[in-house]
Specification:
homodimer, four-stranded antiparallel sheet, 374 residues, alpha+beta, 11 helices, elongated, Creatine Amidinohydrolase, Chain A, domain 1
Chain lengths: 374, 374
């Protein structure tokens, strides 16, 4: 049975497939399968034909579980990788697709998974494969009301996580212990899961991806906490940087400058504005305040089922298999503040999840933005 | 500077590269970079030439942090994806590699990352790419003393995690809350991080990858807890299945049969035994006890920097870009019990991390194996 929410999504999907001349999608990325069918899990696949038929292949152990949540017309269980290839072959035959084109997720499939999904025992020789990443991104880029509710819930859970992490900060505690508090609080507040937690301190706040370590936080350290809970399948993305002890004047200024840039960018958000324009405001404000050399990485990206998804900024987008983002539409959700200030000895980052509305924006993560919580 | 532990590994690596006629490796998988250089992080790369030169490319923000831990001859920072491609081009030129072959990680790189790593502005046209997964796996498959110490530490941390999770089990608690306890305890016991925690209950114990949900545990439920802490860069893999309330006779028998199969397999472990032989013992014991239809998935895999790595069982290995595993060697670490019994309404799994020694084995995760902890 196909539930109405998925019927509507599949209808839009078919429209895009027709435009791109795609006969069938063969999806394996959990987030994409979840969006179109209501169930996304590892080691599974979903095929969607241009006629709107939805066919699933799952580990044989999972059939009953998937039947409870997923929208689909056909389901097959398999024993192993060979069984998976046979299931794909079966569906190609059943749907009479012997030539034409199949859409695969080039930004998700590794080279070896690709070999498996295009194995001659599965995909007919006459069927050409092409990347369906841009199709899936443009389908998912505008969120409906229920999706926005779920992201809002995740945003509240993120606030609980940040609050718990900040509360435990003190000299001597390890970065990993701070992460423990954030994660524990997020699960208690209703997270099913979370994406990898970043906690970095002192000189490590200057690095791009600060995964937690056993480093003990010292008095005078900045601590950067970046978290991404998943609630009902949807994510939020939030970061705060906090001082343990007293901040130097330089740190205070950097914090204020970053916050000014972030807030100026958020205030410019509304439908019809371009991602590139927002990025210009963000980086322009930082440059104006003397941080030209401290900029690294794209400051804005989309949030949804994944904590980092389309729209991605132009340069980044290209290498992630995405098209350059057009103007924003109401219903898109952004994380603003994804890049920080990197001064060398330390860095600062403040990131919030923000909904694009018709005439403006709504900030979904409203935890206080300040350097000191003493 | 190249530290002695990495000098030895790079020497072995060069030996394998010569055999395969590989002029240079271009690695991006954190676990592989960590093994050969002491530092593995996202959005970075390591190039290793057949002459033993180690060149790193990292986000420009990360240079100082990498310099503290990594063994390398050259390091370059980059601003973005284009900078990364230019850094790759720079090294190819510097090392005078204009033809020949480059080893890439086909089991790690997505199709779009592959396009980036083989971009004509980076890789010279005359250089052919090939998969270096089997080389990296055979390098990492036998652990040295320090690696075994780290895996043993991770195993102790896993025991703390399992103990905390079991302690909190009661009707009404959600799967996610149980995961929270395991994760919190692992971080408190010294984990830097952990791979995704699996907690499933009741009918969900029958599925292959039981990620935690908001399902409330009920009296009479089996609960499966599968955890993978990371300590000093090394992992352990451990699973216990526990009853909340009283188990049925059928559940008790299934548990005993699975434990018998797991223990029989572990007892057969020693250097020179084949993975296929162990798998036969595992599945043979289950079949003998009436569980032929309840078997799914490979029962044994390697453990090291990753919680699931080579050696992989033959069928699985092929689709994961690995060569079929040969006979076991002393110093390899295995997870035994990776597959469970899947009866339909519920499943059972017991998994332990086990070191292969010259004349036998050593179980590293020694938490009690029993169905009830009341």
């Amino acid at each position: 049975m196909i539930r109405s929410v998925h019927k509507e999504r599949i209808k839009r999907c078919i429209g895009l497939m027709r435009k791109e001349n795609l006969d069938v999608l063969l999806l394996a990325k959990p987030s994409n399968m979840f969006y179109l069918t209501g169930d996304g899990r590892l080691c599974s696949f979903a095929m969607i034909t241009q006629q709107g038929i939805v066919a699933l292949g799952v580990p044989k152990t999972d059939i009953e579980d998937v039947q409870k949540t997923a929208s689909f017309d056909h389901i097959m269980g398999f024993d192993d990788e060979i069984g998976m290839i046979h299931a794909i072959a079966h569906y190609f035959k059943e749907f009479g697709i012997l030539k034409g084109s199949v859409g695969l997720e080039y930004t998700f499939l590794t080279q070896s998974m690709m070999s498996m999904f295009t194995h001659p025992h599965g995909k007919p020789e006459g069927v050409q494969s092409m990347d369906c990443t841009p199709i899936m991104s443009s389908l998912r880029i505008v969120k409906d009301e229920e999706e926005i509710d779920r992201i809002s819930e995740a945003a509240l859970v993120a606030q609980e996580g940040i609050a718990a992490a900040i509360k435990v900060l003190r000299p001597g505690i390890t970065e990993s212990r701070v992460a423990a508090e954030a994660e524990y609080a997020m699960r208690h507040a209703g997270a099913d899961e979370f994406w990898r937690t970043y906690v970095s301190s002192g000189p490590r706040t200057n690095i791009a991806h600060g995964l937690p370590t056993q480093r003990k936080i010292q008095k005078g350290d900045l601590v950067m906490i970046d978290i991404h809970p998943i609630v009902n399948g949807y994510s939020a993305d939030m970061c705060r940087t906090v001082i343990v002890g007293s901040a130097t004047t330089e740190q205070k200024h950097a914090y204020e400058h970053f916050l000014t840039a972030q807030q100026a960018t958020i205030e410019a958000i509304r439908a019809e504005v371009g991602m590139v324009d927002l990025e210009k405001i963000f980086h322009g404000t930082l440059k104006k305040n003397g941080h030209e050399k401290h900029i690294f990485g794209p400051p804005i990206h989309g949030v949804g089922i994944e904590f980092e998804e389309a729209p991605l900024p132009a340069g980044h987008a290209f290498f992630h298999g995405e098209k350059e983002p057009g103007s924003l539409q109401a219903g898109t959700v952004l994380a603003v503040g994804n890049c920080g200030i990197y001064t060398g000895p330390w860095g600062v980052r403040i990131e919030d999840t923000v909904l694009v509305t018709g005439d403006g924006y709504e900030i979904l993560t409203n935890f206080p933005r300040k350097l000191s919580f003493d």
